[in-house]
Write a structure and sequence with these properties.
Radius of gyration of chain B: 20 Å
CATH architecture of the largest domain in chain A: 3-Layer(aba) Sandwich
Helix content of chain A: 40-55%
Strand order of the largest sheet of chain A: 7-6-8-9-10-13-14
Distance between the termini of chain A: 65 Å
Number of helices of chain B: 12
Number of strands of chain A: 14
Number of domains of chain A: 2
Number of helices of chain A: 13
Largest interface: A-B, 34 and 38 residues
CATH superfamily of the largest domain in chain A: Response regulator
Shape of chain A: globular
Oligomer: heterodimer
CATH topology of the largest domain in chain A: Rossmann fold
Strand order of the largest sheet of chain B: 1-4
Strand content of chain B: under 5%
Helix content of chain B: over 70%
Number of strands of chain B: 4
Structural class of chain A: alpha/beta
Largest sheet of chain B: 2 strands, antiparallel
CATH class of the largest domain in chain A: Alpha Beta
Shape of chain B: globular
Strand content of chain A: 15-25%
Chain lengths: 374, 322
């Protein structure tokens, strides 16, 4: 009985405090994988978003009101992402939702945002399906067809290889999409896909797939997965005597990649949203501010999180009443917005068209290799 | 042909890791008729103990000290040094897991000893989930990279160019450790006083206690041995596949359970046999068929064996007492 009273008063207190303290703030929702096997994606993105919001608040917020970020952790699970989105919209009454990194989870969130007519911006989900869910769903990154083309072009023109193997993650919409577009672009440019193998995220043993790939003697292997598995794959490939370079997409962008894969990753290449070595002042200011706030170098996902929040804030400033419909229209009208990861214009399919960079892995650091324009 | 042999090697090494887990499963079942679903989590704890202890050893250069006392030189780049460090880490994990196993039995299962078996089974699932989520709280749920103790160990190669077969020394080590542990277990169960007491408890718990066998102590010993095996398995798997996370125990745990049922649950040799069959089947399916259905294979085998030969390949059929 006593316990119950304490609980009741606690709940009451919690309710009171949120209502009274933040009545004058604007709530922005965020759903991300702060824990789970893609935790660095969620944490980087979160820090990027947080930095953008802090900067805006120090300038006085939007329309005289402070911005408040409400974050939900989805543990890397699509079902949790869906629950989190519902909570943000129905309970916290956020004006917009930022998230997710992984396309599978953005696809779980998008229908909910669309149904409730709350604008959603995905910082870095590159699967084309994400924004086709409805007119309230946006992204500030490039899409898989482009990312696939970038790596196909890079393989054919820079690495000058003709025979490539694919190893894709069947559980991830991102990996499947990237593989398809890579395959189409690479065969069009005269190359040959010698073998197309699969794995499921969460697997730890890839020896059988790699043995089968090895027997076809590819000159490069395209592994558009996420960093945890890619690290293990690289290691096992080297132990099976495979010397062909590994190629991948922005799912590789994590410091954990090297922690798991180590030296086996040397001579690997992946496409990404930006390079910290880019001398553009917008990039360098961001890198400096991020480093002083979090004591680490921002990866591509942190930059994307920052940009997503920036685009949203800019759109909110262009509205009269901060009504979701107005914010949606303002985001849709974004043109030539100078962001960290390049100039962002939102096209009629609610995607951003912008350049990609290719990075080379060398002893744990990602070196800038080349930029590919759309 | 080289490809086929490589698949067989891959399969045997994968099967070896299942066997290490399945041994503990089957042992506890053999004595208590309890399917200890928390076994996969003990395996996870073993991997984490291995992770933290090897980090500790590498950070404090304890491996150099061990080397100095044994070899008279602090050179840690040798294979021998790596194996020594590996063994220290395995022993540490086995001790911690034996303690964890003791407490699981003492506080979760012993109070329910006289209740229906279904209560125990549900408790086992509860214990398993408890460890999975406590693990996320304590260790954090992001995967950790297990330190590479055997970095300098190059795989052995056979044949030339296109027909080269690669054999990792670590996998050979896992394979022979599995066989060795199986033989030790068989010896303990069939040729020692403790083993005789275990078999007596398994045969009839109440009668055994009337005959003066300290059943509680025997059951504790069984759990500690089974858990120590899981701990060793955790470290060895983490060395081969350097990724440790709190949920890593659930899938291998379930697969090892399938393997134990395939071989005849309660039968030590059967558990090892079943695990190797499962490992080989998975490797060949991934190689020649589609890896997409790899995880489904274990459960398909489980269903088939329960339909066709419920006692497993080497199991003896017991009439169920109601």
């Amino acid at each position: 009985m006593f316990l119950r009273q304490i609980f009741a008063s606690l709940i009451l207190l919690a309710g009171l405090s949120t209502n009274s303290l933040y009545a004058e703030s604007i709530k922005i929702g965020e759903v991300g994988s702060m824990t789970g096997s893609e935790a660095t994606f969620g944490i980087s993105t979160h820090q990027g978003i947080e930095l953008a919001i802090k900067e805006q608040n120090s300038k006085g917020g939007v329309k005289g009101k402070k911005l408040e970020l409400v974050s939900v952790d989805n543990q890397g699970k699509p079902e949790e992402a869906a629950i989190g989105t519902t909570k943000l919209i129905t309970q916290d009454k956020v004006v917009a939702v930022l998230g997710e990194v992984a396309s599978s989870r953005s696809l779980a969130m998008a229908p909910i945002a669309q149904k409730n007519k709350v604008p959603m911006i995905s910082p870095s989900s590159t699967n084309p399906k994400v924004t086709t869910i409805g007119d309230y769903i946006f992204r500030v990154c490039f899409v898989d067809p482009f990312q696939g083309q970038v790596m196909a072009k890079f393989a054919a023109e820079t690495l000058k290889v003709k025979r490539v193997a694919i190893l894709r993650d069947v559980k991830s919409d991102y990996s499947l999409g990237l593989s398809e577009f890579f395959k189409a672009a690479f065969t069009k440019s005269g190359g040959e896909i010698v073998v197309d193998q699969t794995y499921s995220s969460g697997d730890v043993d890839f020896n059988s797939q790699l043995t089968s790939i090895r027997s076809k003697k590819p000159e490069a292997i395209f592994v558009p997965g996420y960093y945890t598995e890619v690290g293990l794959i690289a290691k096992q490939a080297r132990k099976l005597g495979i010397k062909a370079p590994l190629l991948g997409g922005d799912g590789w962008d994590s410091t954990k990649l090297y922690e798991i894969g180590g030296k086996a990753l040397n001579n690997g290449y992946f496409s990404n949203h930006y390079s910290k070595d880019d001398q553009n002042p917008a990039v360098q200011t961001f890198v400096k501010n991020y480093q002083s706030a979090y004591k680490q170098t921002p990866d591509g996902l942190a930059a994307m999180g920052y940009d997503a929040a920036k685009v949203l804030i800019a759109a909110m400033e262009n509205t009269k009443t901060l009504a979701p419909k107005e914010i949606r229209d303002a985001i849709a009208g974004t043109k030539e917005f100078q962001a960290v990861t390049g100039k962002i214009s939102i096209d009629d399919k609610r995607n951003a068209s912008k350049p990609a960079v290719v990075l080379e892995i060398k002893d744990g650091t990602f070196l800038y290799k080349t930029t590919v324009n759309p | 042909m080289a490809e086929f042999i490589q698949y067989i090697i891959n399969g045997l090494s994968q099967g070896g890791t299942y066997a290490l887990i399945a041994l503990g499963y089957t042992m506890v079942f053999g004595i208590l008729q309890l399917i200890n679903f928390a076994h996969g989590e003990v395996y996870m704890i073993g991997a984490f103990v291995g992770y933290y202890s090897s980090k500790f050893i590498l950070a404090n250069h304890i491996n150099e000290k061990i080397n100095l006392t044994i070899n008279g030189a602090a050179d840690v780049s040798t294979t021998q040094s790596a194996i020594l460090t590996g063994l220290v880490v395995i022993v540490a994990a086995m001790i911690v897991c034996a303690i964890v196993g003791f407490f699981i039995e003492r506080f979760a299962y012993r109070p329910l000893r006289s209740s229906p078996r279904i209560n125990l089974l549900i408790t086992a699932v509860g214990v398993s989930l408890f460890f999975q989520y406590t693990g996320q709280l304590v260790f954090g749920s992001d995967p950790k990279a297990f330190p590479d103790l055997f970095e300098n160990l190059e795989p052995w190669t056979f044949g030339s160019d296109d027909n080269t077969i690669f054999l990792e020394p670590l996998k050979v080590f896992v394979f022979f450790t599995t066989i060795l542990l199986m033989l030790i277990l068989r010896h303990v169960i069939f040729h020692t006083r403790l083993g005789r007491a275990m078999r007596a408890v398994s045969f009839n718990h109440d009668l055994a206690s009337l005959m003066g066998i300290p059943t509680d102590r025997v059951i504790s010993a069984t759990f500690m041995m089974g858990s120590a095996l899981a701990g060793a398995a955790g470290v060895m798997v983490a060395m081969t596949y350097p990724k440790v996370e709190p949920l890593m125990g659930s899938m291998p745990g379930l697969k090892a359970f399938c393997a134990a049922v395939l071989g005849g649950i309660g039968n030590v040799t059967g558990a090892v046999l079943g695990s190797f069959i499962l490992g080989l089947a998975e490797a060949l399916l991934s190689g020649y068929g589609t890896p997409t259905y790899k995880d489904a294979l274990a459960f398909a085998i489980l269903i088939l064996i329960l339909l066709l030969k419920p006692s497993g390949l080497l199991g003896v059929h017991r009439t169920e007492k109601v």
